[in-house]
Design goal:
By secondary structure, the protein is of the alpha+beta class. α2 runs antiparallel to α4, α6 packs antiparallel against α7 and α7 crosses α8. Among the domains are: 59 residues; 48 residues, no CATH class; 53 residues, no CATH class. The protein is built from nine helices and twelve strands. Strands 1-2-3-4-5 form a five-stranded antiparallel beta sheet, with no helix packed on it. It has a three-stranded mixed beta sheet with strand order 9-6-10, with no helix packed on it. It starts with a strand and ends with a helix.
Length: 318
Amino acid sequence: MPIRVENDEIIDCAFLGSGYLNGVQLTTLVVFRKTDDKYTAESYYFNENNELTDKATMLQLGEVKPFAIMRTAEVNNFDGMQGYGYPKLYTAIPFLKTIDLCYSVLFGDLDKGQKLLFINEIMASMQKDQNGNSFLTQEQKKLFILLGEKLPDQKELIYEYNPEIRTAQIKEVFNLCLSLLSLSFGYGSKKYQLESGEIKTATEYVGQRQDSMQELNKQRVESIDYITDLVHALIWFHNTFSGEAEWSTEEEILVEFDDSYVTDKATELESWRNDALSFPDVLEFKIQYIMKRLNCEHEEAVKYLSTTTQDDNTDLED
């Protein structure tokens, strides 16, 4: 829960979690506060009756933010919700309800899909109530319908009726509801389809992928901030409590995204490799290939080329 937010950045926050210690339920509340550019961690413990115990502790931390929070790239415009993310599932509730209705319609058609027999009371031995009226049990009602002494339009004494299961209509409505659902998540329409008897997911559907790419790009900034904060916090805790300052919290964190389900990264990488092999005199092609292959910066790629003892072409083929 965010406690202090400045320019949409969470400065102070609290985390709550429950568990069991020696068979007794224990709830832990950890509050991170920043004072004089340094963080402190205050821990409070509550018993199974939500009563505060006397095990409160406080730990002095450093300047690095000791937590990371992942949020969706959406603006939460509700009053008093600064610092909170806006769950995409919230806007999708109406569409999820329509899908649930589709399941109800499909279940209703299937449940009543057995053939019906219209009979008159004379042809069957029926139970009688206390007033002498014939009635059917719940199981009998699924198969028989009483229509008095004769059937409509003077039809046979026993008339068979096979209800139609509206598969095509229900499938069409399902596809519409699924398209509306995928639109609410920023994935465009027709990402989830019922086609040729099989369900195709977003990773399998062959179509326009621009919507998916745009949605991914929106979320990348939040993802990079989250991963960077998390790695910096891990580095600080490692350096502080292991006694070995092996890593610097000032190092730049590089995050690589795998877009293989949207773009064919293997083909793109192969194209860079072919360019490097086809134009051996153009050093930049080799550098760009190494950067993409190893996910490193330009300086690291140049250093790699300068220190290798193998032939450039052989190095690329390996």
